[in-house]
Amino acid sequence: MRLDALLARETARFGAEHPRSVAMAAEASAVWRGGAPMHWMGDWASPSPIFAERGEGARLIDVDGRAYDDFCLGDTPSMFGHGQPAVAAAAAQRLNQGAGFMLPTADAVTVGRLLAERFGLPLWQAAVTASDANRAVIRWARAVTERPVILVFDGCYHGMVEDCLVTLKDGATAMKAGLVGQVHDMTATTRVVPFNDLVALEAALEPGDVAAVLAEPVMTNCGMILPEPGFHDALRRLTRAAGTLLILDETHTLSSGSGGYVRAHGLAPDMFVVGKAIAGGIPAAVWGVTAELSARMDAAQARIGPGQSGIGTTLAGNALALAAIKTMLAEVMTEAAYARMEAGAERLAAGLSGVIARQGLAWSVVRVGARVELVFADPAPKNAAEMRKALDPDLLAALHLWLINRGVLIAPFHNMMLVSPDTADAAIDRLVEAVDGFGAALKDLAA
Ligand code: PMP
Prior knowledge:
Layout: H1 3-17, H2 19-28, E1 52-56, E2 59-62, E3 67-70, H3 85-96, H4 106-119, E4 123-127, H5 130-145, E5 149-153, E6 166-169, E7 172-175, E8 190-193, H6 198-205, E9 210-215, H7 231-241, E10 245-249, H8 260-265, E11 271-274, E12 285-289, H9 291-304, H10 319-332, H11 335-359, E13 364-368, E14 371-375, H12 384-390, H13 393-405, E15 408-409, E16 416-418, H14 425-446
Parallel strand pairs: 3-15, 5-8, 5-9, 9-10, 10-11
Antiparallel strand pairs: 1-2, 2-3, 4-12, 6-7, 11-12, 13-14, 14-16
Bound molecules: 4'-deoxy-4'-aminopyridoxal-5'-phosphate.
4'-deoxy-4'-aminopyridoxal-5'-phosphate is lined by residues 129-131, 134, 157-159, 216, 221, 249, 251-252, 275-276.
GO molecular function: transaminase activity
InterPro entries: Aminotrans_3, PyrdxlP-dep_Trfase, PyrdxlP-dep_Trfase_major, PyrdxlP-dep_Trfase_small
Organism: Phenylobacterium conjunctum
């Protein structure tokens, strides 16, 4: 049996087992372009979207009444589990008392303190999404340094952020393929280098025109690519020497530990961004800066003069978001929760390594705290150019649909698996068993 035959069989099985989702998808197509409120919802490996009914901890139940072990967790917003009772109670109370004042509430004082204590940066601002926060920090970095260029790593994703929608093509910065309605040439003001390539990084900083390097501490949007030993020290040293700000986007690497990757590894960014999980699924993000940078921002503002900054949106920092962030930081994202996530992720990584050994696959497992990635290459690639070769779209589609049909959800596009504090060992074992079955099926195909 070839891979497309396996896919056809799994596609038929999905249709037979999800009649309500399939029917809703047909109805939704009449009123939502692409059949769902956001087109990514149609980008899963299933032939049509699974319509979710509810989430309970690390489980998701769909409109057909089928239950899944959810290792996608909304692609991170629900990393600490769906339907957190403390967040639900705080949000309900806030909604009853009004959520949108464009004024701070008392929660703001508490949240600011909790963020500073946890992540180590003293001064904060709120945004609605991580995309939104990244746009703000890029603008500020350019304002402060009076430099035009942003440097990112090949394979990066920082959200709906124009400046970052670039890639390396034949060694040069290029616009990503497929961008819709893009009229600005980002290659004029964004430079891209391979991750883990300090020679290229130093050369790209050398002209002295780079306002900031914007990076995830571990690349998590092109498979998962770990920094090589010494990379972060060198990144900090080189950015400082070049007068370039360092922005670390911890939206995904918040999986590393209670203080993010920066605290777990003693990093010292000038700016820090985190979104998605920080408000337990309610849209919110925050960004923090050092005291020194904050003073430079004041100076830049004074230099620019009065008027409209062009940074900010109406709903940023709203009372509902602040109530949710406070509850997440104080009651949900605890050391005990992280200890459970860490133990579960270790179990998952060990289980997947066992599958690889048992089935004789040339794959590997990469992990950053509670985030585990199964990579179709061994050893795991050190940059995006190598990783792209491993991201076989047919193999990904087949694995993902295989897992869906066996009651397991993992995030689309690559093999990211998130372990929440609510993820049971039995759920982890079911995922490992399903991947094992897939590995065995692949062996049969090859036979
Ligand atoms: N930063 C990183 C590292 C991300 O992975 C993402 C989304 N995957 C974002 C920012 C953007 O988040 P959002 O789509 O919630 O704005």
